[in-house]
Amino acid sequence: MKIVGIIAEYNPFHQGHAYHLAESRKITQADYVIVVMSGNYVQRGIPAMFDKYTRARAALKQGADLILELPLSAATGSAEYFASGAVSLLQHTGIVTDLCFGSECGNLTLLQRPADVLSEEPPEYQQFLRDYLKKGEPYPKARALALHSYDASIPLELLNEPNNLLALEYLKALGKYNCTIQPHTICRKGNHYHDIQLTEGIPASASGIRTALIEKKGTFTDELQKQLPFYHLFENYSGKTPITEDAFSLLLLEKLRRIQHEPLTVYFDVNEELSNRIWNCIDDFTSFSQFTDRLKTKNLTRTAVSRALLHILLDIRAYEEPSMFRVLGFRKHSAQLLKMLTEKGSLPVVTSLTNSNLPEKAFYADRLYESVRSLLHEQPYQNEYRRKMLVIQEDLS
User: Fold this and answer.
1) Which residues span the domain enclosing 133?
2) Phi, psi (rounded to 5 degrees) for 8
3) pTM > 0.70: yes or no
4) Is there a contact between 295 and 281 (Cβ–Cβ < 8 Å)?
5) Up-side HSE of residue 262: CA atoms within 13 Å toward CB?
6) CA dist., res. 209 & res. 196, Å (int)
């Protein structure tokens, strides 16, 4: 039996994701598709614009068979932690045979060489990296330049594309965990990852869809609806203020004021330099996004700052290896997967939080998210502790 794993955020699930899901099943000839998906917070260090159950339902409707939630510290970590946590979770299933991810180049051979260098980190490469960092280059650019300097056969343009870089991390993680999982890559279809334009007939990027929703104040135009398979699943968000990091501004400022005399370096991804900048600039705080822009530097990217601030807000102090399979939902005809996961997986399967014996702290981030969402959208609060696993029964339509 072949089971392909997909790692995703689906924020929101759009036509490009639908294409990737279908192609992943096709090229691997998989019997089932298991998706590891971020929860209510995502890798850019911001809250998801759409809650995890809405996004999981859309993926299941489109043909995913089982959705597992990526643990919070991995979901909100750098690309390395994001990939490492997701691949580790897939490896722990004991049943996933293949991993299929998107990339701009669509060429696994091209990606494998830089992934090997990054895994081995030979001394000459490390010296190049140190030299570029000393010149003030931000880490992502310094790493790309160091790779190209170490091995000129590695195209520099390959290292400037976000999905290619994430693909390198997936390949690194597969090696790190000595996985038997076979990697595959699909050439990204549609607009560029960072492209915010919507072009009719071309799959938009998730960034473009989110930007359009912010500009339209939550209105799903006809153009936007065409970008979303099963648009009706997102109708509860129609006309509502989109959820962004700025909805958490007061919460972040209150947290920073409350811990103003404590060292921030205890939090995940916060170094001494950033800690000092936060305290030096705290009186300039007007919003989460504004403060992120205020803190970024030439060698500290905006995304890195946003992740660090989110970790402070959510009290994330370190990366944690996956410790359970948190099942968000599955397709009824794929129920066999749950049995296989229980029998062959090396982590406990959690389908109901009421029986999980998880500590109270484990619910904090979701409770915070749902509290903000319910107030912002003037809708009833959905208690994570009482949420039921999704079970999709109908066929694709």
Assistant:
1) 110-160
2) -155, 165
3) yes
4) yes
5) 11
6) 7
Report the alpha-carbon distance of residue 327 to residue 84 in Å, rounded: 19
pLDDT of residue 397: 46
Whether residue 210 lies inside any domain: the answer is: no
**Residue 3's beta-bridge partner residues?**
32
Sign of the dihedral through C-alpha 102, 108, 114, 120: positive
How many whole angstroms separate alpha carbon 23 and alpha carbon 96? 17
Could you say which of 314, 331, 346 is where a domain stops?
314
- 276 and 353 share a domain? no
- Assigned domain for 181 exists: no
186, burial (CB in 10 Å: exposed 0-12, middle 13-18, buried 19+): middle
CA distances to 73, 75, 290, 321 from 82, rounded to whole Å, are 8, 5, 25, 11
**Backbone phi, psi, residue 225, to 5°:** -60, -35
Instruction: Give dist(CA 29, CA 33) in Å, integer.
Output: 10
Flag residues of the chain having pLDDT under 70. Answer: 190-201, 394-397
For residue 184, give every residue at least 6 positions away whose Cβ sits within 8 Å of its Cβ, in sequence order, or none: 4, 24, 27, 28, 98, 99, 100, 101, 108
| Tens of pLDDT, residues 243-268 | 999 999 999 999 999 999 888 999 99
Q: Report CA 72 to chain centroid distance, whole Å.
A: 10
CB 256 within 8 A of CB 312: yes
Q: 162 with 194: CB under 8 angstroms?
A: yes
Position 150 scores a pLDDT of: 97
Amino acid at 39: G
* Domain contains 342: yes
What does DSSP assign to residue 151? -
Residue ending a domain, choose from 262, 292, 314: 314
Does one domain contain both 338 and 257?
Answer: no
Residues 301 and 327 in one domain: no
Q: Output the CA torsion sign for 383, 386, 389, 393.
A: negative
